[in-house]
Amino acid sequence: MGKVKNLISIQDLDRKGIDAILDTASKMETVAIDRSDLLRGKIMAVLFFEASTRTRLSFESAMLRLGGGILGFSEVTTTSAGVKGETLADTIRTVERYADVIVIRHPLDGSARVAAEFASIPVINAGSGAEEHPTQALLDFYSIRKLKGTIDGLTISLCGDLKYGRTVHSLGMALSQYDVSIILAAPPSLKMKPAIIEEMKKAGIQVNQVDNIEDAITEDVDVVYQTRIQKERFYREDEYFKVAGKFKISNKDAERLKDDAIILHPLPRVDEISPDVDSMPQAKYFDQVYNGVVTRMAILKMVLG
Ligand code: CP
Fold first, then answer.
1. pLDDT tens digit string along 257-285?
2. Cα of 2 to ligand 1 centre, how many Å?
3. Considering the entire predicted model, what is its pTM?
4. Ligand 1 pocket, 267 CB below 6 A?
């Protein structure tokens, strides 16, 4: 048997690997419209132990557009793992007998890696606890490159919940492989993990940490990447309410940006981008949603094609 190609961490990919997926995603733009039989006969299992709208549906849309089939669950209370105490290892050793690839979202850090250890088919991490969300980072990269023409040379503000936001962990680690300047904007209690900042600095990236949204949204910034405060990851509700409602982007904030700057957000949004920003030319977060389809088509081709 050949080497199984998993995607557990964005660190599984070097810059060449990331760029190759972005190039394939670009080619998938026409395939997504015309449809293809590239993965005809292949079956994707989606195991969502945690809520999702975009990640699960865009993976399913990607697989259907490539001619493959889908099975799985998105409501853990209907599963033997959720109700009867089956372990993740046993669930994986069962599902691998039904499918050719497993896409897993789970509330625990390390869960996707555990799944990969027990699987003899490829495993794709669709979000593991507060740890990582590598396929989101790839679609974010794809969105930036599609909208700005490049990633190198940009000034990028990562804003909001940088402690619990798994998308910014994967994105931050991957940005270390590019020639960018980064502004990290978060409340003091939700700063980016020191290990990721260290990695950015070791890579020679200029990193500027601020504790207010105003300093992250200036005319010098090319990309504003806003995130939701991850209420579900807080151990104490009172700690959440100390930061809830902070770090909002208003249309007054967005007006400070240059015309060709872009605002991204992995979504879902609660209140951290005011709805009146949605109609501004810089607001690209719903275009970003569609980019998840072509990027995940490219990822499925990489692991199954
Ligand atoms: N961006 C993201 O992971 O969205 P969902 O939680 O809806 O999948």
1. 999 999 999 999 999 999 999 999 999 99
2. 32
3. 0.96
4. yes
